């Protein structure tokens, strides 16, 4: 019995030492990622400051996931600024002041100040590890997200479009499904959006979509006439609302600072979107 107790005690001591030996690895990885992101951001901002487009593109290509790179382009069109830094340009002090800290899980926060007297800009971002083991940024909280972060923001169930019940339900479920497609940021995002338009928009509306994009492609190449914007961000989802108008075939769709008038058409007992107009 005494031998058994000694064996149990030894096993307990060995287990405790093993746990202690392993436990620092996560913080160590976190610190390495902090240094990596800080250095990468400083190099990127230096490239912006010196107008080194080649290094800028290298940063975007190497550090962002392909899906985040596409979203960055959409956000840049929507804000007329660089969402990676929440600004159009940087200063030498900006570069020197860059810091990065681990928030929790796969979330980190980059911060900097343009000048010593300025307030600090905080940019939460989410990282992922690709198939080659490379750390990449998979999401950057835009300016309107302030310092919010966390995977729970993305825990949005996929909405099934209900086109046979009533107009309001159809508009609500269509726009939630369309927004969800943007928020998921899947590799086939464009195909998913196109499928929704082809399924739930009239041929005339689909033609208008193509025409409207061509009209603004030079100054706003990412514009999506269905949402009246260049992107639909996760931090806008909770603000998405649909309201009826005096015309039973028209509804007002609003989210964040955007408002749309959506006109429906009923075909064979099923609703389709016949027109979308941006309300100034």
UniProtKB/TrEMBL annotation:
Residues 1-21 form the signal peptide. Keywords: Signal. This is Conserved domain protein. It comes from Paraprevotella xylaniphila YIT 11841.
